[in-house]
Amino acid sequence: MPYFSKLREKCSSFYNRLWDELVDVKVIDTHEHTTPPEEWIDTIEKTGVMLPHVFNGCYLYNVPTKPGTTAWLDRVNQYRNTGYLKSMLWAIEELYGIEPPVTKEYLEKLDTILKEVYHEDPMGHLKDIVENKMHVETAILNIDLDQHLGMTKKVPAMRAAAGIPSILNGIQVPREITKGSAIVYKFAAEHLHMKASEFQSLDDYCHATTKLLEYFKTSGNYICLKNQCAYTRPLYFPEPDEDTSSIAKLYNAHNFSEQELWKFGDYMFHQVLEWTALNWKVPVQMHTGLARMLYGDSNAINMSHLFEKFPDLKFDLFHGNFPYNNLAGMLHQITNVHADLCWLPIISPTAATRNLIELIEVGTMADPVPVFRTSAFGGDCRCVEGSYGALLMAKDVVIRALEDLHERGLVLTETDALALAKQVLYESPKQLFDPKRK
Ligand SMILES: [Zn+2]
Prior knowledge:
By secondary structure, the protein is an alpha/beta fold.
């Protein structure tokens, strides 16, 4: 019997019964970075390999992207005992029937299979896993502007988050607008036919930003905002001065400090949220937790002013705000924050389980009760193998959390346990992102 199936057999009968119930359960995947699959055909032709791209796109970093199983094995071995490797190996066993231990032969065989599936029909491969094996009703992609459109056509479950972090960084007008320019410039060039030289003032920049937001709204493809600026700045966004002259002066200045860039970002993020609160009211996904750890910069509680200022916006706080470990308390007290455990089950299944236990057992001073504002699954991966492995890990985390609560009498029956599992894998994210979609 394969390694992971054997492991499951050793779990309790409660675990196994719930596992069987959840095999085909419909899920909502709150966050992915899926690369358009047809792009891999070129990559395979150029590099002659596929395994390193899949591994590197799913957090097993720096596996050399050239043939060479000894170097691959050395690198993969460093990840031994991590959640990232477990989720990948588990997915490979279920999808391709290759069992651990990881040896040179394991890696060679896997590379051959991956090259075949990604070379022959990459979109069909993605569609099969997302629809038939993961049972995803909606997956929210966080990729480049409109990059999801080809995927959505073939796999309707694939929707998009409007990625906005670079709006906060557009302080300087680029000499020429390129693919790598901040999103407002890129959008202005492609959709408003504007040249870089037409950005003369902060007003021009804000005007193009509004046009971009209107585009997101009217295109019908985008179902939320997404901001991952926590990697580059603190999540503290104080109220900008009413007098905007200092921000106007900063726009396209020759020199500016990091703090001045953040001040510009504060102003722009408030602009974006004000427009969204008035005109669109979609959820705001925020990367929190693992990012700028120093001084607690990436702790979601830094966003307090935004939670207060925008009571009608729902803030979906990513990655369980790990390792700050305060989400259940935040949901207890603050009405418009939601807990999203995407990525966390493969970062640390232990932290994810503990987080979920707290989110289920705490009550609230702010309706609805936290578990109705909790989403348990988002793979956060570039390749569907990673997303599939992350779903297995998320289900494992959900069942272990429920088992603990059941044993201690907080979850009384197995029927309650199953309902709670469906709540966090489907009902809560459905209610947040897609309440009208049938
Ligand atoms: Zn992500």
